[in-house]
Write a structure and sequence with these properties.
The chain is of the alpha+beta class. The chain contains 15 helices and six strands. It has two domains: 286 residues, Rhopdopsin 7-helix transmembrane proteins, CATH 1.20.1070; 108 residues, GAF domain (Beta-Lactamase), CATH 3.30.450. It has a four-stranded antiparallel sheet with strand order 4-3-6-5. Strands 1-2 form a two-stranded antiparallel sheet. Strand 5 and strand 6 form a beta hairpin. Helix 12 packs parallel to helix 15.
Length: 417
């Protein structure tokens, strides 16, 4: 149960982060859809944690269980309603359909709170297999009917998108069709394990529904990234990408650790403390990956005189170019000399001359140079390269790459004083 709790926590946080990134980064055109999507993610968070809490209740906690049951089912219903709104928003009947599902959700939710005896016939809170019993409960049948009504709307929206894509082949339409597959997979799993099996007496697997949200989230991320069904700012897309990668890696790591631990210790499950420690360590290591890549790029440039880590150099220059802080041309010349493997590099701007080692430009200096241009493309100075220290002359064999580097250096130096 501890592993399930951690996995559901990861998926829930991923849902909220992805919804927040989309809500903040989306344009005005899609702001309403993004708000609906974020509301659905918050509902999914509540749904997942309330299920975990309900299944983990100690024996005899009936009062708390009666409080959690409406939270579990109302939050799930709100989440489904927001999916209808998000998926069918572009249709003429989509908004009224969405509003109708919200109204029906409010009515059914109120009845669950007011008349719980019509929703479930009994509950068992024994601390081992906490469950609800549904024997001839009319409100639970109505709840399933409401879910079926929402699923019908989702299917109708998916069929409409598929029909439209056959006519105009729009990428965003195909993207919604791909998204429909992810939503369909999540809906099928949630319907089986959270609605049908509990009615048949099997309540121990209702955690599968919230866990299956990962499929919908990953499919949604894929279509946002490839088909651009939403116009997102690059920063928000980066945050979304990082959240997805961290969550996926953490989930895979925790599952692999659990399997290995069980195999090594003859089927014994790791304790909650061990799982939490490993989860924290996994997250820390994932967050340290960018720093590791930065250090690796620096060390590679220092160690290998015959290799140029061009992506690292370009990334560093782009970061310097976008920075608002003062740039020291001497430090920039030193950085280029170290990573392009030259004894010295001189940067000239008007009467000012900067070099990697602080020396002035001698009369017998090599004449391998290139002009420096500002952002408007106007030449204002030049950069001169000394003797290469490695086995490969970067200037001679990599002129295109050099031009790309100089095009980044030029605007940086033009703003230096």
């Amino acid at each position: 149960m501890e592993l399930i709790t951690i996995l559901l926590s990861i998926i829930s946080v991923l849902a909220v982060l992805s919804g927040l990134a989309i809500l903040v980064g989306v344009g005005r055109k899609d702001r309403a859809k993004a708000a609906i999507f974020f509301l659905g993610n918050l509902s999914a968070l509540v749904w997942a944690f309330s299920i975990v809490k309900l299944l983990a209740l100690p024996a005899g906690s009936y009062d708390l269980a009666r409080t959690l049951v409406p939270v579990v089912y109302i939050s799930a219903c709100i989440m489904m309603s927001t999916l209808v709104g998000y998926f069918c928003y572009d249709y003429k009947v989509g908004k009224p359909y969405f509003i109708l599902t919200l109204i029906l959700t409010a009515i059914v939710g109120t009845l669950i709170v007011v008349s719980p005896g019509d929703f479930y016939s009994d509950m068992v809170i024994d601390g081992v297999s906490n469950r609800l019993l549904f024997n001839n409960c009319p409100l639970y049948i109505a709840y399933i009917g409401l879910c079926a009504f929402m699923i019908a709307g989702l299917i109708g929206g998916a069929l409409g998108k598929i029909f439209t894509s056959r006519k105009n082949k729009h990428m965003n339409t195909r993207g919604f069709c791909v998204l429909a597959v992810g939503l369909g997979l999540t809906g099928a799993l949630a319907g089986i394990f959270d609605l049908i099996l509990p009615m048949a007496g099997n309540y121990s697997l209702i955690w599968v529904g919230p866990l299956s949200m990962s499929a919908a989230i990953l499919f949604h991320y894929y279509v946002v990234l490839k088909y651009r069904i939403l116009e997102l700012e690059s920063k928000s897309l980066k945050i979304l990408t990082y959240a997805v990668l961290v969550s996926v890696i953490a989930v895979v790591y925790m599952c692999v650790f659990f399997v290995i631990f069980s195999a090594m210790f003859h089927g014994a499950a790791p304790s909650a403390e061990v799982l939490i420690l490993n989860f924290v360590m996994a997250v820390v290591m994932i967050l340290l990956i960018p720093a590791f890549n930065e250090v690796s790029g620096e060390l590679t440039s220092y160690v290998s005189n015959d290799k140029i880590d061009l992506p690292h150099i370009v990334k560093k220059l782009c970061k310097v170019k976008s920075s608002r802080f003062h740039v020291d041309p001497s430090e920039l010349a030193n950085f280029l000399a170290e990573h392009l493997h030259y004894e010295n590099i001189w940067i000239i701007k008007g009467k000012h001359t900067w070099s990697a080692n602080g020396e002035g430009l001698p009369e017998d200096a090599p004449k391998t140079s290139a002009p420096l241009k500002d952002e408007k493309g106007e030449a204002y100075g030049e950069i001169i390269f000394g003797k290469p220290t490695g086995h490969t002359n970067f200037i001679k064999h990599n002129r295109a790459e050099l031009d790309a580097i100089i095009s980044l250096v030029g605007p940086i130096i033009s703003k230096a004083s």
